[in-house]
Specification:
With 335 residues, this protein is mostly helical. It has helices spanning 2-22, 28-35, 41-76, 88-101, 110-132, 139-163, 168-176, 184-203, 205-212, 215-220, 225-247, 253-265, 269-295, 311-329. It contains 14 helices and no strands. Helix 3 packs across helix 9 (205-212), helix 3 (41-76) packs across helix 12 (253-265) and helix 5 crosses helix 6 (139-163). The chain is globular.
Length: 335
Amino acid sequence: MTRRFVALAVLAVVCAGVELVAGRGMSPGVVWDVVNGGGDATERHIFLQLRLPRVLVSLGAGACLAVAGLVLQSALRNPLAGPEVTGVTPGAVLGAVSATALGLAGWDSPLAVVLAACTGGCAGAALLWLLAGRGRGDPAQTAVHGVLVSAVLGGLTAMVLLVEPGELGSVVQWLVGTTEGRVWQHWHLLWPWALLWGAGAWLLAGPLTLLRCGDDIALTAGLSVRPARTLALLCAVALTAGAVAAVGALGFVGLLVPHLAVAVFGADLRVSLPGAALVGAVVVCGADAAAQLSSRLPAPGLDSGRFTLPVGALTACLGAALLLVVVRRTPSRTF
């Protein structure tokens, strides 16, 4: 198990290094000169004030979404209970966009965006909880209600755009998910938030393990099911809100990365939760590096100076393809 953690840590460092040199405007040789203390003022500014915080934010956001997804899947006993399909991510997006449209938050005030996103995420999760009713323990019903809630919240976000068309840029960034333009202020706000709620999720590893076994077994073991599930959902919503406020709604990260983490580290959540954080960081950082490399080689006819592939578009496409492969190879599974 230690070797797996070390291997993933090395992979995270490699992905971070590739992302640092993948962007446009500076060649890998210039980046190496800046790392060694050279380069002019503009090159040092691009590297230290733009590229480096972007890498850190992508690592932190990926870790948040992966842990949130694993917590949700464990608390709800649903393999499809990712932040994207339980109303948490669409609610967080709606909260952030609404606060921006009302002038209460914006990219220059990340704390207000986090608070608005957290409020919207809690509202989305609460709406799913109310609609699911007595069928909360049924994974299929929960998934269906989650898709419904996500669609409703997405429609409300579109209505906000109709009312405030000037917010089109912000809406697109939050809906698709991007790490472009992230600065140190985003990182300084994200890392303590992620550390606080990630530690809270890890402390709930024992109760979450019992919840994965079913409410009856958890009650027999002496666990207060409702408070434990409420705390777990709060951690998941907070982690999702922090990630959404930093990079927007990255598709399929919180849904599929937990399955990969459990496959690599096993079902013991004391190990798989930090493992999921590491896997999520690698996935998002690697996807952002691939997106930047793809943007440097645009299709013929596109303006290479303006073409930028958002990392959220790449994670959504790859995640959908991977989900389709998994479902086709395991048709007997309940999801």
